[in-house]
Design brief:
Number of strands: 6
Order of helices and strands: HHEHHEHEHEHHEEH
CATH architecture: 3-Layer(aba) Sandwich
CATH class: Alpha Beta
Structural class: alpha/beta
Number of domains: 1
Largest sheet: 6 strands, parallel
Bound molecules: farnesyl diphosphate
Helix content: 40-55%
CATH topology: Undecaprenyl pyrophosphate synthetase
Radius of gyration: 19 Å
Length: about 260
């Protein structure tokens, strides 16, 4: 997949085409991670129950996933359910799980058509057996795909992930002297994947909410006021255009601007 493929998919005359033209294909983020927030507020503004916001948010998941796959991103990680989300009313948690199950059943064909590999990060063992069975099935059926890696964070907590990684490291036989940042990262749920270059959060909140705490060390953070159910292809493209204008220094200094080069 490539920027050209994305542009061929956007209907002629759509303003998204102009945005897509602004993207530099050689400077794409490899990994985009998204904190999907604002579903409850989206529903509240429409005098609807909160769960209607989650239901509407699924269309955003579809559009962002297909855009990412067509654009040629390597990894997309969506924060769908945190370890803290169990504190929500049982009916809301039940609806979120039901939506997830339905989503997996209805979207498997799209994942296969778009060469997307599905992967769960978090503690799936804490989820109900029927949900786990759907997740395993989607991961298994898409395991041979070579395009976008779609991580879904479920029963996920960044601190829990670090604790789990420490436990795995301690039982792995790795000598403490051989443990460094690179070897430790292999024990994270995202072991072997590039760290997120771009972290997007919708609904204007300036928090990282226990998401990918280790991996976002050098991520560019992009916060938009758009509520998740309103987040569309255009919003993702805008975030990528903004990311490409950032000067990533990783704690160093900006490279000198060569004479005559802008
Ligand atoms: C945060 O909004 C959103 C969530 C906790 C769940 C996200 C879930 C979905 C988008 C739907 C299911 C996803 C998949 C992949 C099928 P919030 O409820 O905290 O909103 P608020 O801050 O406005 O209350």
């Amino acid at each position: 997949m490539s920027l050209d493929q994305l542009m061929a998919w956007i209907p002629p005359g759509s303003p998204d085409l102009e945005l897509a033209r602004q993207i530099q294909p050689d400077r794409l983020p490899q990994h985009v991670a998204i904190i999907m927030d604002g579903n409850g507020r989206w529903a509240g503004k429409r005098h609807l129950p909160r769960v209607e916001g989650h239901r509407a948010g699924i269309q955003s998941v579809r559009e962002v996933l297909e855009t990412s796959a067509r654009l040629g991103l390597k990894v997309l990680t969506l924060y769908a359910f945190s370890v803290e989300n169990w504190k929500r009313p049982a009916a809301e948690v039940g609806t979120l799980m039901m939506l997830l199950k339905r989503y997996l059943r209805s979207e498997l064909a799209t994942l296969l058509e778009n060469n997307i590999r599905f992967h769960v990060i978090g503690r799936p063992e804490g989820l109900a057996p029927d949900i786990r069975a759907e997740l395993d099935d989607a991961a298994c059926q898409t395991s041979g795909n070579s395009g976008l890696l779609f991580n879904i964070a479920l029963n996920y907590g960044g601190r829990a992930e670090i604790v789990d990684a420490v436990r795995t490291a301690m039982t792995s036989g790795l000598a403490p002297a051989d443990l460094d940042e690179e070897s430790f990262a292999r024990f994270l749920y995202t072991g072997g994947q590039p760290d997120p270059d771009l972290l997007i959060r919708t609904s204007g909140e300036m928090r990282v909410s226990n998401f990918l705490l280790w991996q976002i060390a050098y991520a560019e953070i992009y916060v938009t006021d758009t509520l998740w159910p309103d987040f569309r292809r255009r919003d993702l493209l805008e975030a990528i255009v903004a990311y490409q204008k950032r000067d990533r220094r990783y704690g160093g200094i900006a490279p000198p601007v060569a004479a005559g080069v802008k």
